[in-house]
Write a structure and sequence with these properties.
- The chain has 14 helices and 13 strands.
- It has a seven-stranded mixed sheet with strand order 2-10-9-8-7-3-4. It has a two-stranded parallel ribbon with strand order 1-12. Strands 5-6 form a two-stranded antiparallel sheet.
- The two termini are about 35 Å apart.
- Helix 6 links the parallel strand 7 (about 175-180) and strand 8 (about 210-215).
- The longest helix is centred in the C-terminal third of the chain and has 32 residues, at about 305-335.
- It has two domains: about 25-55 and about 320-415, Aspartate Aminotransferase, domain 1, CATH 3.90.1150.10; about 60-300, Aspartate Aminotransferase, domain 2.
- It is of the alpha/beta class and about 425 residues long.
- Helices cover about 40% and strands about 15% of the residues.
- Helix 13 crosses helix 14.
- The chain has helices at about 25-35, 60-70, 85-95, 110-125, 160-165, 190-205, 225, 230-235, 270-285, 290-300, 305-335, 340-345, 360-370, 390-400; strands at about 40, 100-110, 130-135, 145-150, 150, 155-160, 175-180, 210-215, 240-245, 260-265, 350-355, 370, 375-380.
- It is globular, with a radius of gyration of 22 Å.
- Bound molecules: pyridoxal-5'-phosphate.
- Pyridoxal-5'-phosphate binds near residues 110, 139, 179, 259 and 419.
C-alpha cells in the first residue's frame, strides 16, 4: 500500500470520493449466479436469452463474422467511425430514401455512449437545456432530471394525461428523454395517436426530443415500425431531435459496445457545425471507438440478403418474447392467480411490471428461487418453455398464501431497471 505524503491532513487524494451503492440489478444478478439450484429462474437481467437461457448469437451476425474473417484488419477507424457504418445506420433508421431530417451522425459506445455524447453536445450548445424531462419510473443511466409520472400502478397502464400535463407548460429549450419503443421498465408505450399529440406538444413548446432507441425491433420484429415515434417527430412534425441507437440488443452485440447518435437539425449549416462539435467531443472522450462491432453491423446492413436474415432474427426474438408473455399470462389465469393479468399482455417489448408487492417478490426469490427486481420489474427473456409454468404456478401460490396479494403501494422507482 502507498503511504502518503500529499498533505498532513489527508490520507488520500480520494478521501472526498463518495461511496456509490452498487446498482440493485447487478446485486440481484450476482445473487442469482451464486445460488446453485437447477430450478432457479432469472427474470432480472435485461439481455435476450434463448430457450435454454443462454446468450444468442444471431445467425445473421454469425454469417457476417464469417465474411469478415477473410478481410479483417485492426487499423484505427476514423474519429467519426466507419463511413459505411454511419451511412448504413442512417439509411436504415430513417424512413425515406432521402434520409430527410437526419443531418449528423457518429458511432458511439453503444446506447449509453450515444446518450452521453448527446448530453455533452446539449450542454455545450448555446441553449443550455432548462429542464430535462424523464419518465418516472425510468432508467437510472440518466440523472438530474425533472420527472413526470408515466405509469399508473392502479390501472397498470401508461398515465398519458400526466405525461401531457408535465410537458404542456415546459419552458422553451427543455429536453424530453423518450424511449422509442418498449419502454423500460414499464413495457407501456403511447399509441400512435398519443405519439402524434406528444409531437405536437413538443413542437409548440420547442422541446428537444432525445430518443433512447435501445430496443428497435424487439416490439414488432420490424425496426421501421418500432421507430414510428421517431418518424412522428422528425419526418412528420419536422422537429429537431436526437436518436441514440444501440445495436447491443437488436443485433445481440452487447459486449461490442456499438451504437450511433443520429441528429436531425433544422438547417444544413447548423448540421455542419454540429457534426464538427460531435467529432471534437468524441476525440476527447474515446478518440477511436471499437471497430469490430461496427464492421459486423455494416456488413449486415449493407447486404440485402444479410439484412433480410437479420430481419428474420428480429422476428425470432420478438416472437419468442411475445409467446412467453402470453404463456405466463395463460398459466397465471389457468392457475387462478388472484387479480387481473391483462396488463401482462398489454405490455410490449422485453420488459414489464408484474405488479407484485416486495414481500411476494422476496418470497419468490427466497423460497422458489425466482429472481426479479424488488418492484417486480421483469425481463420476459428470462422465461422459457422449461420454466414458464413453474413461474406461473409459484406466483399464484405466493399470491394465494398472502393476505394482501397485489401491490397498490408498489414503489416502482426503488429499483434500478437498466441492466
Ligand atoms: C432503455 C435503455 N437504454 C439504453 C440502454 C443502454 O444499453 P447499451 O449501452 O448496452 O446499448 C439500456 C440498457 O439496458 C436500456 O435498457
Amino acid at each position: 500500500m502507498v503511504t502518503k505524503t500529499i498533505s498532513q491532513n489527508t490520507l488520500s487524494w480520494f478521501d472526498e470520493a463518495r461511496f456509490i451503492k452498487p446498482d440493485a440489478i447487478f446485486v440481484l444478478t450476482a445473487q442469482y449466479v451464486t445460488f446453485k439450484s437447477p430450478r432457479k429462474v432469472n427474470l432480472g437481467q435485461g439481455t435476450y436469452r434463448d430457450e435454454n437461457g443462454n446468450p444468442w448469437v444471431l445467425p445473421s451476425v454469425r454469417k457476417s463474422r464469417e465474411l469478415l474473417s477473410q478481410s479483417l484488419n485492426h487499423e484505427y477507424p476514423p474519429i467519426v467511425r466507419l463511413a459505411d457504418f454511419r451511412k448504413e445506420s442512417r439509411n436504415h433508421y430513417t424512413k425515406k430514401e432521402t434520409n430527410e431530417g437526419i443531418a449528423c451522425n457518429l458511432q458511439s459506445l453503444s446506447g449509453t455512449g450515444a446518450l452521453h455524447l448527446a448530453g455533452l453536445l446539449l450542454r455545450a450548445c448555446k441553449h443550455f437545456p432548462r429542464s430535462i424531462f424523464l419518465s418516472q419510473p425510468g432508467p437510472t443511466i440518466i440523472r438530474c432530471c425533472e420527472t413526470f409520472q408515466y405509469y399508473n400502478t392502479e390501472t397498470k397502464n401508461l398515465e398519458i394525461n400526466s405525461y401531457y400535463s408535465a410537458l404542456k407548460p415546459a419552458a422553451p429549450n427543455s429536453v424530453v428523454y423518450i424511449h422509442a419503443c418498449g419502454h423500460n421498465p414499464t413495457g407501456c408505450d403511447p399509441s400512435k395517436e398519443q405519439r402524434q399529440e406528444l409531437a405536437s406538444i413538443f413542437k409548440e413548446r420547442e422541446v428537444f426530443t432525445l430518443f433512447d432507441a435501445a430496443y428497435l425491433g424487439f416490439n414488432s420484429g420490424n425496426v421501421d415500425s418500432d421507430a414510428s415515434a421517431i418518424h412522428s417527430c422528425i419526418e412528420e412534425a419536422k422537429l429537431e431531435a436526437g436518436v441514440c441507437l444501440s445495436f447491443a440488443k437488436n443485433m445481440g452485440l452487447y459486449g461490442e459496445r456499438l451504437g450511433c447518435l443520429l441528429l436531425a437539425t433544422s438547417a444544413e449549416q447548423t448540421a455542419v457545425k454540429t457534426q464538427s462539435m460531435l467529432e471534437m467531443l468524441q476525440r476527447s472522450e474515446v478518440s477511436n471507438s471499437p471497430a469490430y462491432g461496427a464492421k459486423i453491423a455494416n456488413t449486415i446492413l449493407a447486404d440485402p440478403t444479410l439484412r433480410q436474415a437479420w430481419q428474420d432474427d428480429l422476428i425470432t426474438m420478438s416472437d419468442r418474447i411475445r409467446s412467453r408473455r402470453e404463456e405466463l399470462y395463460g398459466h397465471l389465469v389457468s392457475c387462478g392467480a388472484p387479480g387481473s393479468w391483462e396488463h401482462l399482455i398489454r405490455q410490449s417489448g422485453i420488459f414489464g411490471f408484474l405488479g407484485l408487492s416486495p414481500s411476494i417478490v422476496l418470497k419468490l426469490r427466497e423460497q422458489y428461487h425466482i429472481y426479479m427486481a424488488d418492484n417486480s420489474w421483469i425481463s420476459i427473456a428470462g422465461l422459457n418453455k422449461g420454466n414458464v409454468a413453474y413461474v406461473g404456478e409459484f406466483i399464484t401460490k405466493c399470491l394465494k398464501q398472502n393476505a394482501s396479494p397485489r401491490c397498490p403501494d408498489m414503489e416502482a422507482s426503488e429499483v434500478s431497471t437498466v441492466s
